[in-house]
């Protein structure tokens, strides 16, 4: 075991300095193989230091590409790499371990082989460590929240379930004085309970290792300064615990500035974050793809900004798999996509097969044309967000008892947005009792005061008309004067 540790220590010295005593112009690759009996056999291969230097540059290039794909800017990615020298050495060491047979025969790796070896490894680190990945790279081999160095960052013997269990144990373990960890006590003081914290940790184990002073507290105080009430913070953190792992200066604030430049109303940040805290954790590339799609659909920059402010969730929808097919479906109904997106962007998060088509078929089966349905959805985008069984069908059945032609729903599809028991039935009962007729939008859309006023006006007109009719009838019945 000592031999093995010495070999890896020597390897690390070589990668950091490019030389060892007595071999100033060479780099040594040491391959230690464990025997069945626990013994080690070592084979030494001398490789030019220039090759090791070239591999380090290749590793940096791969890491830079990977970080930018995670949404980091060129400047932030470069700064992270500059702080991650030991991790870069670790990547080169991994190359030599994965391709040891190639080095033993003296064959150099190609750029493609280097990428194929490192990118899956980096992806595995991202999956395991999530938002603390940057801290891991910069502090390697001592990741955040851990006291002991790690030889292998992602041990194969740790299954996802065991990682969850270890993380949950960490948040619930008590110290000598019987107290929970400081960051857990802090979260409880915010209004979270231990079971809630455990639930978050099961979904996102990295949450257990966030530093209170360097990560959690600065983010919480920043959110409070934005105007988010303390009572809302448990909800925000439950929705997106990754927020606590993001650097304020290098990620969170630059991302907010980027979104403000796209039109997000900075005065509404508290509401935006409460609605969809994940928005601040998406890469710029993903946001730009969504913005490009909205622009392609004919929306102005101002409208796009309003959509991102009112319904930031739209950024979570995949453009090619979700937004574009949904746009094509609505276009087939004759809907103006830009208008629908502006009025009801949440409609684009619905399933075409499970939500949209059943509603369309429902109205087609009841005699409405494609043009009628297109008009209805254009006038009231939320129509397709309602449940057929719990909303549309009961209201349709009651509509059939009302004295209105079917086209009245084309003129006023907002009918389906009102409560059947609290608004539609009571108001229609008053109209029926009065014996008058009002347009469907007058019955439902007016305030109670204006509805009462309109109803009384209609009743008065009806009485005046009847009185006038009665007078004319009497005059017709009077005998003529000779």
Automatic annotation (TrEMBL):
A GO term for molecular function = nucleic acid binding
Q: What InterPro entries does the database record attribute to this sequence?
A: MTERF, MTERF_sf
> Which UniProt keywords are given for this protein, alphabetically ordered?
Signal, Transcription, Transcription regulation, Transcription termination, Transit peptide
Record carries keyword Transit peptide: yes
UniProt keyword annotation of DNA repair present: no
The UniProt entry, under Pfam families, shows: mTERF
**Signal peptide positions on this chain:** 1-18
Give GO BP annotations, semicolon-separated.
DNA-templated transcription termination
Similarity comment: family membership: Belongs to the mTERF family.
Name used for this protein in its record = Transcription termination factor MTERF5, chloroplastic
Task: Report the source organism.
Answer: Populus deltoides
């Amino acid at each position: 075991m000592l031999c093995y540790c010495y070999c890896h220590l020597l390897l690390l010295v070589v990668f950091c300095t490019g030389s060892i005593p007595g071999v100033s112009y060479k780099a040594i690759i040491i391959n230690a193989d464990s025997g069945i009996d626990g013994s080690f056999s070592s084979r030494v291969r001398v490789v030019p230091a220039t090759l090791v230097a070239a591999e380090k540059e290749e590793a940096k290039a791969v890491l830079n590409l990977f970080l930018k794909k995670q949404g980091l800017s060129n400047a932030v990615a470069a700064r992270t790499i500059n702080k991650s020298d030991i991790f870069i050495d670790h990547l080169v060491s991994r190359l030599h371990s994965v391709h040891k047979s190639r080095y033993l025969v003296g064959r150099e790796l190609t750029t493609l082989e280097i990428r194929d070896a490192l990118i899956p490894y980096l992806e595995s680190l991202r999956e395991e460590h999530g938002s603390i990945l940057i801290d891991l790279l910069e502090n390697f081999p001592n990741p955040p929240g851990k006291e002991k160095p790690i030889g292998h960052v992602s041990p194969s013997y740790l299954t996802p379930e065991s990682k969850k269990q270890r993380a949950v144990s960490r948040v619930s373990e008590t110290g000598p004085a019987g107290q929970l960890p400081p960051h857990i006590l802090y979260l409880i003081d915010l209004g979270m309970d231990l079971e809630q914290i455990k639930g978050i940790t099961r979904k996102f184990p990295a949450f257990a290792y966030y530093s209170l002073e360097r990560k959690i507290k600065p983010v919480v105080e920043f959110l409070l300064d934005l105007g988010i009430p303390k009572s809302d913070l448990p909800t925000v953190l439950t929705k997106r615990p990754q927020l606590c792992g993001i650097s304020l200066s290098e990620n969170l604030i630059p991302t907010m500035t980027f979104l403000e430049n796209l039109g997000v109303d900075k005065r509404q940040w508290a509401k935006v974050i409460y609605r969809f805290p994940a928005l601040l954790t998406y890469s710029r590339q993903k946001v730009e793809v969504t913005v490009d799609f909205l622009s392609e659909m004919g929306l102005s920059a101002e409208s796009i900004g309003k959509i991102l402010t009112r319904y930031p969730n739209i950024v979570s929808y995949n453009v090619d798999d979700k937004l574009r097919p949904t746009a094509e479906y609505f276009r087939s109904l004759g809907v103006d996509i830009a208008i629908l997106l502006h009025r009801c962007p949440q409609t684009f998060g619905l399933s075409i097969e499970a939500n949209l088509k059943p509603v369309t078929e429902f109205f087609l089966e009841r005699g409405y044309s494609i043009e009628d349905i297109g008009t209805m959805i254009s006038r009231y985008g939320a129509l397709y967000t309602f449940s057929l069984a719990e909303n549309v069908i009961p209201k349709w059945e009651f509509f059939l008892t009302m004295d209105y032609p079917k086209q009245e729903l084309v003129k006023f599809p907002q009918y389906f947005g009102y409560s059947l028991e609290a608004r539609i039935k009571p108001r229609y009962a008053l109209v029926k009792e009065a014996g008058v007729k009002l347009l469907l939008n007058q019955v439902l859309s007016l305030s109670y005061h204006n509805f009462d006023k309109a109803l009384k006006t209609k009743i008065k007109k009806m009485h005046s008309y009847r009185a006038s009719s009665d007078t004319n009838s009497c005059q017709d019945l009077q005998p003529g004067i000779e």
